[in-house]
Amino acid sequence: MPPILLHLETATETCSVALSKANKIIASVNLDKGNSHTEHLFPFIEQVLAESNCNISELNGVVLSIGPGSYTGLRIGASAAKGICYALNIPLIGISTLQSIVFSAISKQKEEQKVLYCPMIDARRMEVFTALFDENGTAITEAEAKIVDEHFLASELESHIIYFCGNGMPKCQPILQHKNARFIDAPLDATNMLLPALVKYENKEFEDVAYFEPFYLKEYLAKKSVVKGL
């Protein structure tokens, strides 16, 4: 029976939810508005279920964008996904947020083959969370927090066309001016996780719901309040 999967994307400022059946997205909703996950995530889940005439009990799994990204956004998404999976006794499928960006870029780029993709999630100043992926969306380097300067991926750019994408790309574009550098708008969206999620579902590559934690990449540092008396 074709799996019905709920997809949750909360790793950055985007709050996005989708519902898929087999290899098709049957409902989705997306809001690019920072710090809105707490307010919108569960109403969005209810919305895609209602639009699809699907009862939550029919779900066969939950797909979650697991990071790297915003500490708060990742925590909210993970809490929702774990709660649903635990209550329904269904599997949790984790998808790298960087890979999700790459699949968005691949869907928009049809002209060139044998290229590399460099997704970038905005961190602070000129820092990004990033990794390199091949044309199939497979990671070929580990995810890292990197400072982008004029030497960033210099040797790789000499030998490969590289597509830079993600919400950290615009601030880096002026620095990455090279004949082999390409820039593509590939916003995060819960629908981007469908293809890798189906592979993991088929192979039963599931997260341990009880012990799962998002991939923060960097430790969360609470900021000291600047308000007097706090």
Instruction: Give the structural class.
Output: alpha/beta
Q: What is the CA-based Rg, rounded?
A: 18 Å
Give average pLDDT, whole number: 93
Q: What is the straight-line distance between the termini? A: 55 Å
SSE topology string: EEEHEHEHEEEHEHEH
Largest pleated sheet: 5 strands, mixed
Strand order of the largest sheet: 3-2-1-4-5
Helix content: 25-40%
| Overall form | globular
β-strand percent reads: 15-25%
Number of helices: 6
Number of strands: 10
Low-confidence segments, given as residue ranges, are 220-230
What descriptors fit this protein?
230 residues; alpha/beta; 10 strands; globular; disordered C terminus
Short description:
By secondary structure, the protein is of the alpha/beta class. It contains six helices and ten strands.
Describe the structure.
With 230 residues, the chain is α/β, with parallel strands linked by helices. The protein is built from six helices and ten strands. Strand 4 (61-65), helix 2 (71-88) and strand 5 (92-95) form a beta-alpha-beta unit. The model is unreliable at 220-230 (pLDDT under 50).
Layout of strands and helices, then pairs:
Blueprint: E1 4-9, E2 14-21, E3 24-32, H1 37-51, E4 61-65, H2 71-88, E5 92-95, H3 97-108, E6 116-122, E7 127-130, E8 144-147, H4 154-159, E9 162-165, H5 169-172, E10 181-183, H6 194-202
Parallel strand pairs: 1-4, 4-5, 6-9, 9-10
Antiparallel strand pairs: 1-2, 2-3, 6-7, 7-8
